[in-house]
Amino acid sequence: MDIKTSLATQGYAQARSAATPLAGNSTADRDGGLGKIATSFLETMQQSEDTAKAAMLGNADPHTLVQALAQTELAVETAVTVRNKVVEAYQEILRMPV
């Protein structure tokens, strides 16, 4: 399997897990789900930072660094897309007549 296929598969798996509906309708369930997503985002960023530091010190191979950077890019793009959708929904609510 080549690198592009591997990265695409990983990206799809991450996007699919982020897009699954949250179980239950209580606020605690939704907050827990959002908390898990935020925690996952932070873990991805931390792992990428650790990998970059290790690569700078010569303790990680370049393939691992490229993979970590690709995962970080996907995580940031996903966060920006979610933010844009939230802002768009908020603006749509503000346009509603009272």
Quote the average pLDDT: 81
| Count of distinct strands | 0
Approximately how much helix is present in the residues? over 70%
List the domain count as a whole number: 1
Any idea what the shape is? Answer: elongated
Unreliable spans are: none
Largest beta-sheet details: none
Order of helices and strands: HHH
Family: Belongs to the FliE family.
Keywords: Bacterial flagellum, Cell projection, Cilium, Flagellum
GO molecular function: cytoskeletal motor activity; structural molecule activity
Pfam families: FliE
Account of the 3D structure:
The mean pLDDT is 81. The chain is mainly α. α2 packs antiparallel against α3 (62-95). It is elongated. The protein has one domain (3-18, 26-95). The longest helix has 34 residues, at 62-95. The protein has helices spanning 3-19, 27-56, 62-95. The termini are far apart.
Kindly summarize this structure in a few lines.
The chain is an all-alpha fold and about 100 residues long.
Topology record:
Layout: H1 3-19, H2 27-56, H3 62-95
Q: Main traits of this protein?
A:
single chain, mainly alpha, 3 helices, 98 residues
